[in-house]
Structure to design on (213 residues):
């Protein structure tokens, strides 16, 4: 019997890839169930709504990025963060057509985009913590919001980046992270902070997992 996580991942990747053909707004849950070859009851159990499909896909991307292990201790915080963020873009590239279709439709649907904002924040919080960067306090909250903004800006570059090695995406990400680092050195209190403790495994969180936008 297939594992629950495997079924959920199959459903969400099917939905994202199907969006390339039908568009996200026109896509129905019935379409997803038929394409994934699962009964509607199984779809309801794992992803009972289209926003849940997006959230599930985002969590799958997080887990794929984190499954390679944490970056090395000898790297700078910015380099560790760069590594983790590029892992995400590498995974996204396997579903490029569907993601681009979803992004186009979400830009015309502010409500759905707003519903996904919480998942993105959770995802970026996990990414920062996995890079050993504290997310506690006001400074930590600012870091999470800044990384959400950086991710959104670089995602627009990624949409147009057809290079095999995502060169344009890497350059844009590096530039944005350097700008954020300079801003914090100027206005933040981060210089004296210790490396944050690695986060617990996603399954260990009480019903929460790290998390497409």
């Amino acid at each position: 019997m297939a594992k629950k996580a495997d079924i959920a991942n199959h459903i969400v990747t099917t939905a994202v890839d199907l969006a390339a053909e039908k568009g996200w707004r026109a896509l129905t849950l019935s379409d997803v169930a038929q394409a994934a070859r699962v009964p509607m009851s199984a779809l309801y159990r794992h992803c009972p709504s289209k926003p849940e499909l997006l959230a599930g896909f985002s969590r799958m991307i997080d887990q794929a990025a984190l499954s390679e292990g944490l970056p090395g201790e000898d790297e700078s915080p910015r380099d560790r963060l760069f590594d983790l963020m590029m892992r995400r873009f590498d995974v996204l590239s396997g579903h490029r057509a569907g993601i681009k279709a979803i992004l186009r439709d979400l830009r015309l649907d502010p409500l759905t985009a707003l519903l996904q904002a919480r998942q993105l924040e959770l995802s970026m919080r996990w990414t920062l913590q996995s890079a050993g960067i504290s997310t506690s306090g006001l400074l930590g909250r600012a870091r999470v919001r800044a990384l959400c903004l950086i991710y959104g800006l670089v995602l627009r570059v990624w949409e147009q980046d057809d290079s095999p090695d995502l060169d344009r995406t890497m350059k844009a990400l590096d530039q944005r992270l350097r700008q954020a680092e300079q801003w914090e050195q100027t206005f933040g209190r981060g210089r004296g902070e210790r490396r944050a403790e690695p986060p617990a495994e996603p399954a260990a969180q009480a019903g929460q997992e790290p998390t497409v936008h």
User: Anything to note?
Assistant: Residues 190-211 have pLDDT under 50 and may be disordered. The longest helix spans residues 137-160. Residues 92 and 206 are 27 Å apart (CA to CA). The radius of gyration is 18 Å.
